[in-house]
Amino acid sequence: MADLAEVLRLAAAGVFPPVDGGWERVPPWRDGVEAVVALTGHAFLAVADDVDDAALAALRPDGLGGAHDPRLVTALAAGGWVVSLDVLLAATGGGRPAEESRLVAREDLSAHPRAVAARALRGEVRVVGRPGADPSLVTVGAGVAGLTELGAEVVAGTDGARLVADVVASLPAGSPVLAAVAPGNARSLRSFLRAGFRPVGSVQVYRPARRR
Fold it and tell me: Given phi > 0 = left and psi -120 to 50 = alpha, else beta, which region is 121?
C-alpha cells in the first residue's frame, strides 16, 4: 500500500507517480475523514476499511478523472459532509528562527469559522497572524496525509501572499507544507501561488456518514 505522505513529499519536489491512469487505496490519515487525491494520471483513495476493495472498484475510479466523478464521492460520503474539489498546492518550510518571526498566536481568533472548519478536518490546529487588531489569520494543522496544511482567511488591506509566505518561512526547514484551495477562489489561489506554492494535484475531502 502506498504511503501517501511520501507520495506528496516527492510531488512537492517534482517527482510524481507514474501516469498510468491507475488508482491506489491508502489508509485515511484521520478518523472520520476520508479523501480522494489525484495527481497527473494517478489517483489515491483514502477510505476506511468498512468499504472493501470490490466496492471501491465497482465505483470505477481511475487516475484520468474517474476518481473525482461526483457520483463516486457522493456514494462514499453516504450523506456526509463533502468539501469542495480543491487544487492541492505544496511549498517547503523555510526554518526561520522563532525570534525572527513576524507572526504571533491568535487565540482570540480560535472561534473564527475558518478555524472551526479546520479543526473539523485536521489535527493539532493552531491559529496564527499578525500582532494587533488585524483579523486575518492562517490555520496550521495536520491535514492531508498527516502533513502540515495551511488555510487562510485574509481581509481587504492585508497582503495575503506575504502573510502566507511568513507562515511557510516559520515552519521547519525542508518540510512539505500543503494547502487546498477551491479553484473558484481566485484571490486566495493567487495569494498562495505568490507565496511560493506550486500545484501538485487535486483533493476532495469528506466526512462519511456510513454506519460502521
Answer: alpha
DSSP helix, strand, coil percent of the chain (3-state; round to 5): 30, 30, 40
pLDDT surpasses 70 at 211: no
pTM score, two decimals? 0.95
pLDDT recorded at residue 212: 58
Evaluate whether 163 touches 130 at the Cβ level (below 8 Å). yes
CA–CA distance, 105 with 110 (Å, rounded to integer): 10
* H runs (alpha helix) in 15-90: 53-58, 70-77
- Backbone dihedral region for residue 111 (phi beyond 0: left; psi -120 to 50: alpha; all else: beta): alpha
Residue 116: partners with Cβ closer than 8 Å, 6 or more residues away: none
Average confidence (pLDDT) over 175-190: 96
Report whether pLDDT(25) > 70: yes
